[in-house]
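F.,

This is the one I mentioned.
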């Protein structure tokens, strides 16, 4: 019996000792947690209930050169309700007046909002959705409503703000305006001007403390931010929205007519290099056109006959030929080794001067000129092109500039045919903007300026940074050569034999060069050949104001594919309208300038525009933006109602301008 009691007592001591040890361990852990690891666990608890959130700043606005919006950030607000923080007395007193105010503001019934509010109160919902995607005026109205006017704590008002980027011009210049996006890893995707000028536009993020509530939701703590965000600067581009609209619609009309795959138009100010319009349209599988890619800047391709200008300048500078030098185009076909080079005119042009060879765009003449002139020293030819900067990128801020291709003797792909091929724009590659920069240099008396999309950066009315023209090459060639090729470019349009004569207008002058480039030419099946049609030049021909290039890829061969037929009319339409709406034409009879050559051309809208500087013109049937440009150029204030073409004008045609201050246009 005693032994048994002793055994039991021993076991009790063991159990008691274990309990003491366990209690000591627990006490030790509690002390450790409280004193040693207290800060760590407190921080862990805080992160699970409170967290710092980033507040994105308002992105700066992107403007055209006249201050019209190209891209802007619009704040959208979501209103939620914390039903727990509101006292019973305040809720009972204000629930119906609040529901009535919400119903009046947003169109739903008062009972609808009362049900949301009462249900949130019953369920102790701290994050009940009331209304989302409000604009600023609606948001301010909500803040003044009963109960919500008491703020976050007493009124239960929760405000969430997000920013949406909008393009007031819609799809026009969408790719050139572009965007900037950042992923979860902080990597940026930059497209167009939005991407190029993101460092100015994006601003600096702020910080806001939020508390975790039910269902993994977070609500702001207090009304103030920990760190206020700093809004981005406003950026003023060089884009002219009137010229942009003209270029867009002229290109669109021609793409639709020829069912082409894609195309681009660029308009640039000659003296400054300011890009006034840049339109890029590609075709969808349904045959519609939209701003798919920035072909103007990113697509490098064989330029074809527009490259003949580069070769003519090189040959004149190296005194290989002169404009009066006679060259035999034979019968429009010249065999070099086993390769035969042909002109588009059957039978050829016979013996002609080099100036006429350029004007009629003879491949044979140019192949002979370059091959015979440089075959003993091909390095001299390529070095001359390099001196003019043909091999260099323009160094644009817009991401994705295509690389020019200019092979050097000995490079992979160089052959005995290379000189002849390069003479008429093959075995070389340039983007449309790089080609235009060269033509612009000729228009600018030899000075090559860098194409520019940015004018200045502002914070409200304060200029942060201003951008002036940048000269890439003060003289790509001698003044003697410049004057010669300027006249020849003018002859391309004015002379009856010129490939661009179909564009000729007696009322205003243009100068430039057609180009028709064959693609898929390695195929022996001619049915698979595709073409690139282009026209590059400037206007007016004397004292040029603007340079322009039009490039259209893969037009329907059954409708047409030559540069003069496909791209030339777009160039003429742009030149006509820009010229007619420019203040520089104040002494010109705009009626004559705007008369189209045929009803099919985009400028046919202007046949109805009986422009007289002493009277109000008839703008019915015209594109709204074109009508506005003409009327404002006459000093008339214009009010526009609707979109599309002009259906009605409030002031009759022929009314004395002196008696008119304002006109209302109804568009459909």
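My design for it:
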């Amino acid at each position: 019996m005693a032994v048994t009691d002793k055994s039991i007592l021993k076991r009790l001591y063991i159990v008691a000792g274990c309990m003491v040890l366990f209690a000591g361990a627990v006490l030790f852990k509690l002390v450790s947690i409280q004193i040693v690891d207290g800060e760590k666990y407190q921080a862990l608890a805080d992160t699970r209930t409170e967290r710092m959130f980033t507040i994105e700043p308002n992105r700066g606005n992107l403007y055209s050169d006249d201050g019209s919006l190209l891209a802007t950030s619009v704040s959208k607000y979501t209103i939620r309700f914390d039903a727990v923080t509101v006292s019973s007395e305040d809720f009972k007193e204000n629930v119906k007046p609040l529901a009535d105010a919400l119903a009046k503001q947003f169109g739903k019934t008062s009972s609808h909002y009362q049900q949301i509010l009462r249900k949130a109160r019953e369920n102790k919902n701290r994050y009940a959705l009331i209304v989302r995607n409000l604009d600023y005026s609606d948001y301010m109205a909500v803040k003044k409503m009963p109960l919500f006017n008491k703020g976050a704590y007493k009124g239960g008002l929760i405000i969430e703000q997000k920013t949406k980027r909008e393009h007031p011009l819609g799809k026009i210049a969408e790719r050139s305006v572009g965007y900037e996006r950042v992923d979860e890893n902080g990597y940026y995707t930059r497209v167009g001007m939005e991407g190029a000028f993101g460092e100015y536009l994006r601003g600096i993020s702020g910080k806001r403390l939020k508390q975790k509530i039910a269902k993994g939701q977070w609500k702001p703590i207090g009304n103030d931010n920990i760190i206020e965000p700093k809004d981005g600067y406003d950026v003023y581009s060089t884009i002219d929205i009137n010229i942009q609209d003209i270029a867009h619609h002229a290109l669109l009309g021609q793409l639709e007519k020829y069912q082409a795959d894609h195309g681009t138009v660029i308009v640039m100010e000659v003296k400054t290099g300011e890009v006034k319009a840049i339109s890029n349209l590609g075709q969808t599988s349904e045959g519609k056109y939209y701003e798919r890619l920035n072909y103007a800047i990113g697509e490098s391709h064989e330029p074809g006959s527009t490259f003949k200008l580069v070769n003519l300048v090189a040959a004149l500078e190296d005194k290989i030929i002169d404009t009066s030098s006679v060259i035999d185009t034979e019968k429009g076909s010249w065999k070099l080794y086993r390769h035969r080079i042909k002109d588009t005119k059957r039978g050829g042009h016979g013996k002609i001067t080099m100036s006429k060879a350029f004007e009629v765009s003879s491949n044979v003449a140019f192949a002979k000129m370059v091959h015979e002139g440089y075959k003993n020293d091909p390095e001299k030819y390529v070095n001359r092109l390099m001196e003019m900067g043909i091999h260099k990128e323009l160094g644009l801020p817009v991401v994705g500039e295509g690389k020019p291709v200019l092979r050097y003797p000995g490079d992979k792909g160089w052959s005995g045919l290379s000189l002849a091929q390069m003479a008429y724009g093959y075995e070389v590659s340039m983007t449309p903007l790089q080609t235009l920069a060269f033509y612009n240099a000729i228009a600018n008396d030899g000075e090559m300026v860098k194409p520019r999309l940015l004018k200045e950066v502002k914070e409200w009315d304060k200029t942060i940074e201003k951008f002036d023209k940048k000269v890439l090459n003060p003289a790509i060639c001698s003044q003697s050569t410049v004057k010669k090729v300027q006249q020849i470019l003018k002859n391309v349009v004015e002379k009856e034999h010129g490939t661009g004569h179909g564009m000729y207008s007696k009322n205003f002058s243009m100068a430039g060069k057609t180009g028709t480039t064959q693609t898929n030419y390695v195929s022996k099946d001619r049915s698979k050949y595709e073409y690139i049609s282009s026209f590059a030049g400037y206007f007016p021909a004397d004292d040029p104001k603007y340079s322009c290039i039009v490039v259209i890829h893969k037009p329907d061969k059954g409708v047409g594919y030559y540069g003069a037929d496909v791209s030339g009319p777009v160039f003429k339409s742009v030149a006509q309208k820009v010229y007619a709406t420019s203040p520089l034409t104040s002494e010109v009879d705009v009626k004559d300038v705007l008369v189209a050559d045929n009803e099919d051309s985009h400028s046919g809208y202007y046949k109805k525009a009986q422009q007289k500087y002493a009277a109000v013109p008839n703008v019915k049937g015209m594109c709204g933006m074109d009508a506005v440009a003409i009327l404002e150029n006459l000093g008339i204030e214009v009010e526009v109602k609707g979109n599309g073409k002009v259906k009605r004008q409030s002031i009759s045609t022929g009314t004395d301008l002196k008696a008119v201050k304002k006109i209302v246009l109804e568009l459909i």
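The longest strand covers residues 69-81.

Talk soon.
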